[in-house]
Amino acid sequence: MAGALAVSLAGPAAAQDDKALNARMERLEKLVRQLRDIVVQARQSGDPVQVRIVGDPDPDVVTARRRLDDLEAAVQTLNGQVDGLTRDIQLARQAAQDQRAATERATERANRSEGEFRARLDDLTQRLQAAEAAARPVVEPAPPGAAGPEEAGAPADDPAEAFAQAKRLLLAESYPAASAAFGEFIERFPEAEQTPEARYWLGEALFVQKAYADAATAYIGAIRGWPQTPWAPNAVVKLARSLIALEKPKDACRTLGEFKKRYPDAPKSVSDRAAAARAEAKCA
Questions:
Q1: What is the chain's pLDDT, residue by residue, as a tens digit (284 residues)?
Q2: Nearest residue to 223 (alpha-carbon basis) of 186, 278, 262, 250
Q3: CA dist list (Å): 224 to 29, 42, 55
Q4: Cα 249 from Cα 187, distance rounded (Å)
Q5: Would 96 be classed as within a structural domain?
Q6: Count of domains in the chain?
Q7: What is the C-alpha to C-alpha distance for residues 243 and 245, in angstroms, rounded to an integer?
Q8: Is residue 6 part of a domain?
Q9: Same domain, yes or no, for 105 and 162?
Q10: Most buried one in 104, 140, 172, 225, CB count within 10 A?
Q11: How many CB atoms are closer than 10 A to CB 180?
């Protein structure tokens, strides 16, 4: 009875296997018949053998071919992406080269403009000094025992103290004495840290006295190198105003043009004075 039960349990699975095996055998027999017909045809006609199998394809072959097709499509897609990335890289490299060339041209133009403006400033300084040499203010020595608003005392040997003495004279509105003190400071301490600022304050003292040519010369010396200091933007505007007073509006307009480039973040009060000077000089 146990044997009958085993046969009954194995029966369905064995039947399925036999069915699959029979189907495969039928396909093989069909292929053999086709091949036999092809060989007979070749013997009778002498024509080249053309193998053409008619029937259902092998499932494994179909699956392999589908996978191969999928792989070929994936490879084509990747090739297209690689070509696109290659083009993007080439375009980016060309854009970088163009930008580098444009930057070099802009730098060259800026350097050329800087050199031309410095040359104009040097020429202007020489012409102002030559034209106004005889008109420079002369500080008369104070009579013995006389004292100004604040005693200057003997010139200090320390640059910081000498600068402070000249600044005190300027704040006391003793402009002739202040201009003399700042001029002496510049001569004695040409390499001192305070020398550019001393030139600026010398220009201020001379501007108040309407010695515009000497004031312009002092301002030019102060802004040489375009320092980024609180007083530098105002020095440029004062230089332009000195040039306007000397009836040199074109030079004033060039100076104000440099003001916009060199000090775009200048305080609003200074920018307003620059705009007023630009209008007075009738700059384009």
A1: 444 444 444 556 666 767 777 777 777 777 777 767 766 666 666 666 555 555 556 676 667 677 767 777 877 887 788 788 778 788 877 887 888 777 777 667 656 666 666 666 666 666 665 555 544 444 444 444 434 444 445 566 899 999 999 999 999 999 999 999 999 999 999 999 999 999 999 999 999 999 999 999 999 999 998 999 999 999 999 999 999 999 999 999 999 999 989 999 999 999 999 999 999 999 98
A2: 262
A3: 104, 104, 96
A4: 31
A5: yes
A6: 2
A7: 5
A8: no
A9: no
A10: 172
A11: 20
Residue 253 lies in a domain: yes
Task: Establish if 32 belongs to a structural domain.
Answer: no
Q: Does residue 230 sit in the same domain as residue 203?
A: yes
> Domain containing 130 — which CATH number?
1.25.40.10
Domain of 96 in residue numbering reads as 61-115
Distances in whole angstroms, Cα of residue 242 to Cα of each of 40, 47, 91, 188, 252: 117, 111, 52, 26, 8
Beta-strand ranges (E) seen in the chain are: none
The tokens of 25 are what? 């055998």
Q: Which of 53, 202, 54 lies closest to 137, judged by CA?
A: 202
Q: Residue 157 corresponds to which tokens in the numbers above?
A: 């040997």
Q: Widest CA span of the chain, in angstroms?
A: 151
CB 199 within 8 A of CB 219: yes
Q: How far is CA 55 from CA 52, 66, 156, 157, in A?
A: 10, 18, 117, 115
